[in-house]
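Holo model, arginine. Inputs:
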Amino acid sequence: MTEKLWGGRFAAQTDALVEQFTASIAVDQRLYVEDIRGSQAHARMLGRVGVLSPAEAEQICTALEQIRQEIAEGRLPFRNELEDIHMHVESRLIELLGDTGKKLHTGRSRNDQVATDMRLYTRGAIDRLRALLRQLQGVLVDLAEREADTILPGLTHLQVAQPVTFGHHCMAYVEMFRRDSERLADARKRVNVLPLGAAALAGTTFPIDRWDVAHELGFAELSENSMDAVSDRDFLLETLAALSILAVHLSRLAEELILWMSAAFAFIDLPDAFCTGSSIMPQKKNPDVAELIRGKSGKVMGQLVSLLVLMKGQPLAYNRDNQEDKAIFFAALDEVESSLVVLTQMLPGLQTHPESMRAEAEKGFATATDLADYLVRKGVPFRDAHAIVGKAVRLAQERGLGLESLPLAELQALSPRIDADVSAVLTLEGSVAARNQHGGTAPNQVRAAIARARQRLGWERQA
Ligand code: ARG
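Output:
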């Protein structure tokens, strides 16, 4: 039987079932690098302020380094009796150093320790996510450039509305992912606060130097209230909320890829290497990667709700409920990271079918608004123009023609203001080229947006 590090006041051993129920090592072993880094900073500080001798601090830091290597190489066995990563590290330290190892936990508690570990971990995760978002934006910008002139029927209500370019559509997602990255960067400011020093909940009697630890660990601020520091998890909630919004964006893009690849749309094809087949239907090529991105996004939103509910009933300060934060947060993080990676790999292989997109835009009378705008420029009030074009659409529909194929004489019968120059506004290219304002779909505006995005991403334009 293992002697518990907290076992002094207990007469009986912990029930094995309870050890199994309360252990978190299976999940929090993932924090070992952060845990050891935090402990080293704490030990060095204790050495500097004289709570430990310089030699003791040095010994502890060296032994912690050895433990880090042991864990990295899978040489430290994990056991439920030792509960969590903090106890595993500390008990190994005591095994290695005896009494000196027993001094590490002076002036701190697992409550401020675990909060520190999670903040360090989350800060690193945010940096990784932002790098992945940058790569994804880069891939979308490249795709937008390749397809800057490709006509796509723009939809509202899933009905053909007005022509846009495929590149413009790609750039819409670049904007969404940019905001996701900014949200994460903003959350990072509130993540990057040092809780260590709060101890269990009330602070410590030892003359610790919190700024010393903060500087060593790269924290920009100290927590201002010890009770808040050990019980708050809103830094995780905020990050998870940003992840959920990001997951919504991933899901919407995935949904579009799925629709576009279906035979009913036939706008795109996704690379074979990123699709899967059916065990029964030999003809099938399914966009499973996109479907899973869409599916996983639902889990991420669920994880946000799980963490909100985990927190809502807790009185101050630390409660063991908080241990459950990790499984929730890590799961969401893993879903989003893997989705970002696979999507970024898949998108460069996307092929467009411009003829299908064009045919759909023509069938949907996508330039009807252009005709109305044309009449307005010729002096017809917009409402009247709207009605005239409505009639033109009905006529074209009856004939089975696109607006651009209606004979000029028939258009002139609807309004004498229509001249031969109308043909230019009825083409799909004319329509998109005319939307030539900042943020519009005109190919030269899309190229300008691409240039701005590349500048923002700090990338050189590729030849
Ligand atoms: N494993 C715990 C957690 O993740 C560490 C803190 C435990 N503190 C305590 N007083 N039991 O929250």
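The domain at 111-145+159-353 is CATH 1.20.200.10 (Fumarase C; Chain A, domain 2). The chain has three domains: 7-106, 111-145+159-353, 359-441+449-457.
Archived with the compound record.
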